[in-house]
Every structure is written in C-alpha cells, then in structure tokens.
Amino acid sequence: MPKCAWRFLAVAVALGFAARAHAQDKIELKVTTFVPPTHGFVIDVLEPWVKDLEKRTGGRIAGRVFAGNSPFGKAENQADQVKQGVTDVGWGLNGIPRGRLPRSSIMEFPFVADSADSASKALWAMLPGLLADDYKGFKVLALHCHNPGLFHTRDKKLETIFDVKGLRMRAPNPPTQALLQYLGAAPVGMPPGQVYESLEKGVIDGAVFPWDAIKGFRLETLLKEHLDARVYTSCFHIVMNEAKFASLSADLKRAIDDTTGLAMVNRFGEWWNRWDQAGLDAVKARGHTIVSVSNDTREKWRGQLRPVIDQELAALDKGGIANARQIYDDMLKQVARFAK
C-alpha cells in the first residue's frame, strides 16, 4: 500500500477514535420536577439552567427536563428517583413524603419565613451545619421556599384564619397540617397537581398556597375566596445523584457548581415574586374576593399559634431531633439577617 494511503488510513482511524471519545464524553442529565411544563420553575429555572450548562461545557453536558406530566413527575418520588439513579437531578417538595427532611421542615412552621428570598438564603446558609443530616447521600444544588402563603376556598369567605374551622383544606407539609388541625380544619395532605380534581369533585373545600400556584395549577376558576394570611411557607430541594456528580471531570463539576448554589438561591426571591404576581393577576381579572390582613393582626396570630410551634418542636425532639429548638431559634435569626 502506498505511503499516502497508509497516512490517510491512520488519520481516518485517529479521527474515528476521536469521534467515539467525544461521543462518550457527552453526558445527558435527566432533570425532573412535579410541576407542569408551563410552570415558571420549568420555564425560568430548569430549562435555562440546562441550556447554560450545555453552553458552558461546549455541549459535553446536555440536560433533558421532565415535568409533572411525565412518568417521573410524581412529587413524592423526586428525591427517591435521584438517589436510586433513575434520574440525575430532581426538584422536590420538602413536605412530601412526610418526615423526609425533619430539620428543614422547621422553616415551614408558622411565622418563621419572612419571604421567599430570606427563607431560601437562610436554608442555604444553614445547610453545611444544622441541616446537613437531612441531605445525606445527595449532592444538594439548591434549597428554597416560596413567599408566605394564603388560605383559599371555593366559596366560603374567610375573614380570619380561624374561619377555616370545619373545612377540608389541602395542606402541603406536616407543619401546615398541624396548623390547620389546631385551627379546627380537616387537613388533607396531597401534591399540588391533585388539587384541581379534588376541588372539582368536592373532596376538599380549599387549599393553602402562595399566589403562584393559583395560576400554575389552573385553580383560578375554582378557588374564589382568598385570605392573605401569610402564616406559613413550603420549601423545596434541588438534589443531584451523588455518584453521578462524583463521576464528572473537574471542569464539568465546576460548571454545575457555578450555576447552582448561591448563584441559583439568590434568584428565588425575584422568581417567586414574578410567579406570585401572575397568580394574583389571574384572580383580580376574575373579580375574586381578597381579604387583606394587617401586621398587627398577624402579630396577634403569632402569639395565638405558639402552642402549635411548641407541639411540633416537642414532636421532633421525641422523634430523635434533639436540637430541634436550636434549629428553630437559628432559623429565626438567619431569616431576620437576610431580611435586612
């Protein structure tokens, strides 16, 4: 064979090996959440994030987002799917399933959260210390909470939080279930994606949600009475499979770290404000009743709800979280620090 032919063959083989190596280098991350594909979290957070990763890594990382309408969309499965390696990254609701993140759940107690911004930053600041045991076995990408939520009903006007007595109210997490029970309501734990059908069938009379969920889950046609209680919050986690992250090269790990953590946590305040505004606008467009609450009234409620807080802290202590009160006290300090 002529020398030029040998050279051509050698180059072709080399290029073939290079192409195969490049193909093997490309990593697709399976990213999941429980909200619909039209939700702001998919449109404003997850999809832009995977596109940013792809750009930063020159296409070596590609992400595919699976929303709540996919087989991976069950709220209660988000963290389990990640831990088992079925998916790579999941955005989950802390309160579902019950008891998964007991330390972090303290942020969901009445009147701990001041805003999505301060609550999210407080959780992230506490992660390396007092909250670390909640997330063993995960690479934590972000923690965050929504703005303090409201009480919404189908047809009963609420003037005060105590007016929920006797109503069946959807609750997002155990602390809010305890709150509703203390107020005389019948709390019903369920993922947000099940609320529309449950309201339509009369299974529940109302729900506690931030404004965002009204638009995000198409509830503006069913929930017509709104009390701007701002008593509680719900919190969320974005976690990655630990082994998957460990398998990445240093530059790919850096690309993930540079686009998550504080870089993401610091934006949840502005994101939630935008999403809440969309829900509020949808309600106002339909002329719904919105009952405002003064700060003086909330301060009064804070004292009246103290037994709920003491009860839940005692339950955590009994369940093995011996420093529950220390976590609670530190959360109040951290939220106040970031609210300034």
Overall number of strands: 11
Strand order in space, largest sheet: 7-6-8-5-9-11
Runs with pLDDT <50, length 5+? 3-24
The N- to C-terminal Cα distance equals 78 Å
- What is the string of SSEs from the N terminus onward? HEHEHEHEEEHEHEHEEHHHHEHHH
Work out the helix count.
14
The fraction of residues in strands falls at 15-25%
State the secondary-structure class: alpha/beta
Q: Mind describing the biggest β-sheet?
A: 6 strands, mixed
Shape: globular
As a percent range, the share of helical residues equals 40-55%
- What is the radius of gyration computed over CA atoms, rounded to a whole number of angstroms? 23 Å
Average pLDDT figure: 92
Topology:
Layout: H1 3-25, E1 27-33, H2 40-56, E2 61-66, H3 78-83, E3 89-93, H4 116-126, E4 138-145, E5 150-153, E6 168-171, H5 174-182, E7 186-189, H6 195-200, E8 206-209, H7 211-216, E9 225-227, E10 235-241, H8 242-246, H9 250-259, H10 262-265, H11 268-285, E11 289-291, H12 295-304, H13 306-318, H14 324-339
Parallel strand pairs: 1-2, 1-3, 6-7, 6-8, 9-11
Antiparallel strand pairs: 3-10, 4-10, 5-8, 5-9
Helix pairs in contact: 4-11, 4-14
